[in-house]
């Protein structure tokens, strides 16, 4: 892959889409992770206004620090970038307290983690609404179309998806070529929804390079008899998550009324 050419192509695509919308620019949530860092940089390279919003909710200090450093890094290089901060911790706490208790601790933790993502989505669309901006998504190919590792109507609620055709490995490669902060490049990927620093790999049970292999292998139709035990395990993880999250990757089912009933 020609990484710098890909970056130029995506930024040009973003600018063309915004102008055709029409919209003056973009708003994006900055988490301190590689995906939002790359997406915001690609948006900044369009020359159009970009609002980078930090939205902490009981956030791990390292994630907050990386997010702030990245916004500062962008502002040093691009005059069209502005930063904003909306602390949603109190909002989250009030809403969580108003919701019913769940007997399953695991189910409740997951529901509250998704609540964080959905509060952030609502916040981004507020900024988008008052400034007529497009909400730029940060999902990559393996998350969006492989295992569905995102929150429906949370970080999945966006107007455009600039990096959804890049694998995680390609995201890192393009980011390296663009000179993004070393602390972001070296940080373990995390969704930042749990109030601690658990990584995506901790949650999924496989690394992104492993999942990329599984996605490619699954599409190839190759025989599985010569796979190692670990490859079989990773393939099972990929297929299980792909099946469970298929509803995120396909259009919402619509009940079509037969003509004879109209």
From N to C, what is the helix and strand string?
A: HEHEHEHHEHHHHHHH
Distance between the termini: 53 Å
> Major β-sheet, in short?
4 strands, parallel
What's the tally of helices? 12
Give the CATH architecture.
3-Layer(aba) Sandwich
- Would you report the number of β strands? 4
- The third-level CATH topology is Rossmann fold
Secondary structure category? alpha/beta
CATH superfamily: HUPs
Say what oligomer this is.
single chain
Q: Indicate the low-confidence ranges by residue numbers.
A: none
Percent helix among the residues?
Answer: 40-55%
C-alpha Rg (nearest Å): 19 Å
Strand order of the largest sheet: 3-2-1-4
At the first level of CATH, the class is: Alpha Beta
Q: Could you say which overall geometry the principal axes of the C-alpha atoms support? A: globular
Detailed description of the structure:
By secondary structure, this protein is α/β, with parallel strands linked by helices. It has one domain (3-202): Rossmann fold (3-Layer(aba) Sandwich), CATH 3.40.50. 55% of the residues lie in helices and 6% in strands. It has twelve helices and four strands. It has helices at 3-20, 34-44, 61-77, 89-98, 105-131, 141-147, 168-177, 182-186, 200-204, 208-220, 229-244, 246-249; strands spanning 26-29, 50-54, 81-85, 134-135. Strands 3-2-1-4 form a four-stranded parallel β-sheet, sandwiched between helices. β1 (26-29), α2 and β2 (50-54) form a beta-alpha-beta unit. The radius of gyration is 19 Å and the shape is globular. The termini are far apart. The mean pLDDT is 95.
């Amino acid at each position: 892959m020609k990484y710098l050419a890909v970056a130029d192509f995506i930024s040009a695509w973003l600018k063309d889409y915004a102008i055709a919308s029409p919209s003056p620019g973009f708003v994006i949530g900055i988490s301190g992770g590689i995906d939002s860092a790359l997406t915001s940089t690609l948006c900044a390279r369009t020359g159009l206004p970009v609002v980078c919003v930090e939205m902490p909710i009981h956030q791990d200090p390292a994630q907050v620090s990386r997010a702030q450093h990245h916004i500062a890094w962008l502002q040093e290089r691009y005059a069209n970038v502005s930063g904003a901060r909306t602390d949603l911790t109190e909002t989250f706490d009030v809403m969580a307290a108003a919701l019913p208790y769940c007997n399953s601790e695991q189910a409740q933790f997951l529901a509250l983690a998704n609540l964080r993502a959905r509060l952030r989505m609502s916040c981004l669309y507020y900024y988008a609404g008052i400034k007529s901006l497009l909400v730029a998504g940060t999902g990559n190919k393996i998350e969006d179309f492989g295992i569905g590792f995102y929150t429906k109507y949370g970080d999945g609620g966006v107007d455009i998806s600039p990096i959804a055709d890049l694998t995680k490995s390609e995201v890192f490669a393009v980011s390296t070529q663009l000179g993004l902060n070393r602390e972001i490049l070296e940080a373990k990927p995390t969704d930042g929804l749990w109030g601690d620093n658990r990584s995506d790999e901790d949650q999924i049970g496989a690394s992104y390079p492993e999942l990329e292999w599984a996605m490619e292998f699954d599409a190839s139709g190759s025989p599985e008899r010569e796979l190692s035990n670990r490859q079989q395990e990773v393939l099972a993880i990929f297929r299980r998550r792909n099946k469970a999250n298929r509803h995120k990757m396909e259009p919402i089912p619509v009940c079509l009324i037969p003509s004879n009933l109209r």
